[in-house]
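Worked example 3. Consider a protein that binds iron/sulfur cluster.
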Amino acid sequence: MNRTQRASFVLERLREAIPRPETELDYGTEYELIVAVILSAQCTDARVNKVTPALFEAFPTVEALAEATPEQVYPFIRSVSYPNNKSKHLVGMAQMVCEDFEGAIPQEIKQLMKLPGVGRKTAQVVASVAFDVDALPVDTHVFRVANRIGLAKDAPTPLEVEKQLKRYIPQGDWGEAHHLLILHGRYTCTARRPKCEPCPLQTACVYFERLQALPEPLDGLDAKKGRYYCQTHDGYFNKPATHTDRYGVEQIACPTCGSMNVFEAKTGRTTKQVKDYRVN
Ligand code: SF4
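Given these inputs, the predicted complex is written out as structure tokens:
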């Protein structure tokens, strides 16, 4: 399966699994959307949705927010991450919208990125969701899922993931792909324990293929003889060496023979790790 086929397979399967691929942030207007997206950086949508009703009631328009001080905004958003910075960004964003854009949230990504608190991802989300601009914002979920599945190959940054995805996903599908990959990452291909068993993407997923290639657990190991067991030289040891594998992952290795064919003596599980992807 080449990457174009993989991308088309993934979109097809995710469309079946996720009938309403849209943002989970609650908002009514473009102003409310940009506020919610700024608040959602490094924070969950569920948490943001808890604070925005009171915030929007207190500051119902961009003009009202522009007249506020960060200290007045802070109590409404104290439970989201980085409330100090976000209070300043929200007020700064509202002031710039009023002064430079006549009170209307700008539609272009470049203009949006001039606003305080609005980086590339936030700008793309707002442009795509509010104004139907073709954009494919890459957040922590899209980054992880795209690399795991193999839609992106060893892409080290969100920008590189975005570039690679745009090569293989048709332009008209970018906005939808963004939501599908986010929701898949949030509920199925989760950061800590991806739910691979019920996942409809198994047959196209590079990460899953590598998981399947890991050795099965060994029976009958004796944890009294050592913390680890090296199958290659048939011996136990406590203090492991490390070795970097061909995917760049640091693996536990046998201090005697250097083999990475090592198992935890207590559980019998392999110590081999499949390369995974995180972004802050
Ligand atoms: S098979 Fe597992 S790793 Fe691959 S996309 Fe599905 S949940 Fe994620």
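Take a moment to read the result before moving on. Residues 54 and 250 are 47 Å apart (CA to CA). The chain has two domains: 1-213, 215-280.
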